[in-house]
Known about the structure:
Elements: H1 10-13, E1 18-23, E2 29-34, E3 41-46, E4 53-54, E5 62-67, E6 73-78, E7 87-92, E8 99-102, E9 109-114, E10 120-125, E11 134-139, E12 144-150, E13 155-161, E14 167-175, E15 178-185, E16 188-191, E17 202-207, E18 213-217, E19 225-230, E20 235-240, E21 246-252, E22 258-265, E23 268-275, E24 281-284, E25 290-296, E26 302-308, E27 311-319, E28 322-325, E29 343-348, E30 354-360, E31 371-373, H2 389-396, E32 400-405, H3 414-418, H4 427-441, E33 450-455, H5 457-468, E34 475-479, H6 485-491, H7 497-503, H8 511-517, E35 530-535, H9 543-556, E36 560-565, H10 575-593
Parallel strand pairs: 31-32, 31-33, 33-34, 34-35, 35-36
Antiparallel strand pairs: 1-2, 2-3, 3-4, 5-6, 6-7, 7-8, 9-10, 10-11, 11-12, 13-14, 14-15, 15-16, 17-18, 18-19, 19-20, 21-22, 22-23, 23-24, 25-26, 26-27, 27-28, 29-30, 30-32
Amino acid sequence: MIPFKKPDVRAFLKTYSIKTFAVSPDTKTIVFQADFTGAPELWALEIEKGFPYQLTTIGQSVYDLRFSKDGSYILASFDYDGDEKPQIYALPLKGGELTPVRTLPGTHFFVHAQSEDGKRLYYTSDESNKTYFDICAYDIETEQERTLLKGDDARLYLSALSEDEQVFTYAKFYSNTSIVGYLWKNGESEPLIPGADNEHVTGDSTLGKDGTVYFSTNAGEEFSYLARYNRKSKTFEKVFQLDQESIKSVLLSKDESSLYVVASAGVQDKCYSFDIETGTSNEVLLPVTIVEKLTMTNSGELIVLGSTPTKPKNIYRYMQSEWMQLTDVRIMGLEEEQLSEPEVIRYPSYDGLEIEALLYQPHKENKNGYTVLLPHGGPQWADVLSYDAQAQILAYEGYQVFSPNYRGSTRYGASFTKLVEGDWGEGPRLDILEGLDYLESKDQLQSDKVIVLGGSYGGYMTLLLHGRHPERFQAAVDICGVSNLFSFIETVPESWKPIMDRWVGHPERDKDRLVKDSPITYLEKMTKPMLVVQGANDPRVVKEESDQIVEALQKQGTEIEYLVFDDEGHGFTKIENRISLYETVIRFLKEHLHV
């Protein structure tokens, strides 16, 4: 018997990641983004042949991906090294050099639709409106742009376009919990929910040939449901509602007899078919627990991209009531049973609010006794039953991983999500501490063996917990976290600034609270070893947020390491950078915890 070396952390980090996909009009080819070469590129898969071929060598993240209406070429929007400013390109079906379609450095172009004849693109752009964006139509042949609707009091998002291009739906984004939907025709707009105030979310929408709009909304409810707006009678009605589940995406079948919806049910996603004529519904059993994207081909088949906690994102095709797996992304050298299947736990917080969380257990032979607290980003986001390489790496290395969905997380109703607005540093922090106490009460945690590691808002919470409760943690890892709420409010992208008052707070009106909730207030108490990681091109949490806390801690003598990636933004898209990040994290923890 030949002895084989146990796979290390690189096995997880060299696992490929599929981000998004598009299906050709003839349903023969799927184009998708994957990092097979170590950086994100576009690949094509001819379904009947089953082996992908490379289309690009750009090494950048794609935002929008679609085939032209006649299937003769591909349209794709890419940013540059994480700057989150997508530019529009075309490329041949067999790949090769990109042809610029709509590019302007420093400008965002978010594509949403293409005309049926393939001659016009519809997108939102901040070329002349950096704060609120405009909805524009661009003629590919004449290279002329028309502004259809200017944003004035909230950022605009284009949702669905009618076949004759005379009608479209769009949304005004006031905050993550206030998104109002409208229908536009001949220069006039009307709300999809007549008489409703702004305290609701209008989500995904689709347009029928008769002008009927089907969309998701939580107007008047905690959880989003399927609704219908009749353009002719200007009436709104609920169509399909689920108990404690929020509908988040809506697909209309080609014959317009049925709808397919994806709903979030706590930490899992579900799919349902809904018969428009009879009003009946059936669950469509999924091959995944979390859906990244669901689309319908011209022939009426469903294609889904999704994952489970122990299986990375793959693409599946639904034919004759069965799912066929089209891609086969695996973790090199490991079987699924060697990964950690998280336990879903629930516990009461300090005020009785129920918090749901995921708990990853290492296999007994690897267990080192330490727990990693993993606060998620957002903060209006959630940890779910998807493949999480970070959690799996830590569990494989012997750490128990605790991921709580504290107040402010999505998937638990509108009121729950709003609880973080204007309260970044109090309620969520106490929810986390209650979770640690709960685990300790169940003998599932050793209080002197806890590490905190988080990114984005999770990085902010890492810093705040380290500063306010240093006695509870042995080390801290902050990845692109906010260190100072005042400077954060000033440096976010222009299109974010209108929401900051509600989301985070006002620098003058809420000065005392912002001081109290800023990690930089508690520098003197940050005494435990810390690793700080930052992308130099991060447009959301700019590098200065990490610079200021690193410099201050270095001056006071706190043991701190600083890792900066010059070619990344708010997240890490290149495999070698991800390997460097987590090898550094594992080495840092081993050195300071002696595990």
